[in-house]
Amino acid sequence: MPRPNPPVSRARPCDTCPHRSTSLCNFLLDGAGGSATQIWQEHKTARSRQILYRAGTHLEHVLVLCEGWAHRFVSLSGGHRMILSFLLPGDMMTATAPFSDRISSSIQMVTAGRYCLLRRVDVLQTLSGTDSALTGWGQHIKTQQENLEQQLVDIGRRSAEERIARLVLRIVQRLEQHESQSKREFSFPLTQQHIADATGLTPIHVSRTLNVFRQKEIMSLSHSFLAIHNMRMLHHIADMEPPADD
Amino acid sequence: MPRPNPPVSRARPCDTCPHRSTSLCNFLLDGAGGSATQIWQEHKTARSRQILYRAGTHLEHVLVLCEGWAHRFVSLSGGHRMILSFLLPGDMMTATAPFSDRISSSIQMVTAGRYCLLRRVDVLQTLSGTDSALTGWGQHIKTQQENLEQQLVDIGRRSAEERIARLVLRIVQRLEQHESQSKREFSFPLTQQHIADATGLTPIHVSRTLNVFRQKEIMSLSHSFLAIHNMRMLHHIADMEPPADD
DNA sequence: CGTCACCTTGAAATTAGTCAATGGACGTGG
DNA sequence: CCACGTCCATTGACTAATTTCAAGGTGACG
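Above: the input entities. Below: the structure tokens describing the complete assembly.
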């Protein structure tokens, strides 16, 4: 395996990505050490609503979302669709990919965006060779699994209002992590169909529920824009702890 | 890394466990190599319905179930309960534990049983030092995540009949993996409350649905005993591929 | 023989889904 | 600038699935 001295000053592709500051990417870049110039395979752009990969497909890469929103989903024989998770910039789209060459869920863009590919064998090698990469990845997997479990609880045992309130709050919290300050207004590109498919409801019922929130002046979502008017009440409906600073 | 000839004949605790043959445990024992006598910390017995650990608790061990059935669950403020997964002999009860000292779901026995504890730092060291252990564990994590995602789809987008049929079939398939032959009758210790909490239904509705299955002579579940009378029909209801040998 | 956990059944209430029609926003091409 | 198509959101009336409430039954076990 030839390893000619890489030109040190050459920028690695993701150094310019908005997500570069997230720990998720750092542990891979840092772990890869000298071979870091190699691990980033390629960048690709994607249109809104484009399906990047379909469940069951062969896939030799780990995908990281750089710009835009996306989601992982499964479609059923009856034509129904279930969204398993939403993906925001910086998210690993295929967290278990290092250990399998088959993808078990489909991936679709919500907005237009950009993502990059890492060869899964390279990632696997980095994980097995670097303790910090392994623990970083382990934490990420753990978080992701806890999110799935939370959703399972929400969909299994909570009302429509609770589900929607929790979905929105969880996304808002993720958005704020990157911004490191709390906001009340967001660009929010999910359609009511997206929300329905993520909460196990019908879009009609999502529409009605959002209307209730709007009329109670809790939050209003329209035209890809979300405004939270009563954060405390929203947390109360979601059965979540309100933030300390409010 | 010293590898003194270990006393070959000395039995390790889990060598006598019924689950010892599962790959899940092998990758840890094999990976641990010479230190394998150390990694198995301790065995404990548990009574039926005993709660082993509560969500949010500090936990320095990875738990492996040796005998009996158990489940991981979360309880809500309203008194509701959601079961995230059922655990059968040989299952790792805390798969992400190597990377965290806090457990995010509670664990409760369904039947009486026995389990063993592995220090999580030992497991982590094995994972980072042994490629086969890492890939084995990665596969396991991936399977577990896919199961969670399947449940999410089931609960979000399927009817009560489908959910129950799928839950039963998935458990039956796991039971058959160990037995390596397909059966039609099983000892099945889950109560209707368990099934309800795992499918997001009420026990009343589970009772009615099981009655429908009984009257249609598809399967009958009573007194901790499950008999499948029409495997093909059960697969059809579950929207799953029927087994080839039937 | 009583108790406890578990299961069953019926009737009423509620939540969420289905069907169907309408309207708004936005981009595209004439 | 307008006409058109497409995607998205809304509304009402109706229906279906599931929950809730309440009561009673069964089986195991000390």
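Note for the figure: The domain at 159-238 of chain A is CATH 1.10.10.10 (Arc Repressor Mutant, subunit A).
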